[in-house]
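Deliverable D5.2: sample structural annotation.
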Amino acid sequence: MTTLGTGVLRIRNWLRDHPLALDGALALAVYVAMVVGSFADPGAHHGPTFGTRAPAVGSVFLMALGALALVWRRRRPMAVLAATGVLAVVELVTADPPAPVVMSTVIALYTVAARTDRPTTWRVGLLTMAVLTAAAMFFGSAPWYSQENLGIFAWTGMAGAAGDAVRSRRAFVDAIRERAERAERTREEEARRRVAEERLRIARDLHDVVAHHIALVNVQAGVAAHVMDRRPDQAKEALAHVREASRSALNELRATVGLLRQSGDPTAPTEPAPGLAVLDELVKTLRQAGLPVEVACAAKEGPPLPAAVDLAAYRVIQEALTNVRKHAGPGAKAEVSVVRVGATAEVMVLDNGRGTAGRAGGDIVGGGHGLLGMRERVTALGGTLTAGPRYGGGFRVHAILPLKVRAREPDQPGAAGRTGEHA
């Protein structure tokens, strides 16, 4: 049974790949059926009988032409229908009783119905039924209501209906397949989009962690090198800050990179992401690095901020203060404020530093991604961020974060850059 099924499947696939051969076989089968049917006498008292009549030479020739036309039924269905219809009408008019040349017309009408639309099937089918039935009724020797005439009407009608049903089913299957393929493409695009968003988020976190802590390590190491010979106690204190900042950087890097592990990995991080709850520790490390910072955080009062907003506010403050420490110059001071205003949380970081000529661009001027990362982070939550020099000197970073996150589409052009147009 397995061998038989495999053979049948192989033959079916071969015929599907060679439609002309399939149509040739169909034409041969139709020709044989028409020739066999032409030997039957439908006018017998007890049903059709064989051997009482034989087809004329002209009828055999018309049947051969009708069958031969079916070989091109897929390529030119309308032309084949017209040709077989003409041959059938000629046979109905000239022969008595006629040979079943109309069988080729039935096959051609089915092909037209299966390969065109429904309005065309209705028009062509009704015209074919009317012409063939009228020719049989008006030119045949049998009464107009005879079974042969009604049979022509019924067979042509069923051919059109069967072809239309096959076309509808094929269109339905194609629509289902197209929807499945579209859904698969949509899932793949959504997966790629989520992967890109996650990569961007991890890149921002890594930048924030590395930029902040490495800047502190650099400052404290410079202090230690400067006072190592004359004030070793102060140098030891600076080195202790270096060690503490390095440890913090490693812990945050381990937590961030740990997100890339599998969900079942026992070493995956379980600590929450940093937020305003650890803002005091951030400010403490900066003060130890020599940057005076004043903090007014009214957002800690009342209900806690959403996790995404809390993390974004912390990262904005961290990056802004890191930029102050790197670019503001000696003697600079910073002010941080976080307040709730209606349905938003506003984060502002000010400093009075003079800095360098390229300070307006933050660390983007030097090829970094500090301000760009802040803007992308805030924009992803549906907020806005402005950054630029203050009147009279210094720099200002102002972020407005909605408490109800409204994530923007990632494929909107310039989504990350609109928030920083004031910079």
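Annotation notes: DSSP finds eleven helices and seven strands in the chain. The first strand starts at residue 40 and ends at 41.
The annotation will be released with the project's public dataset once the embargo ends.
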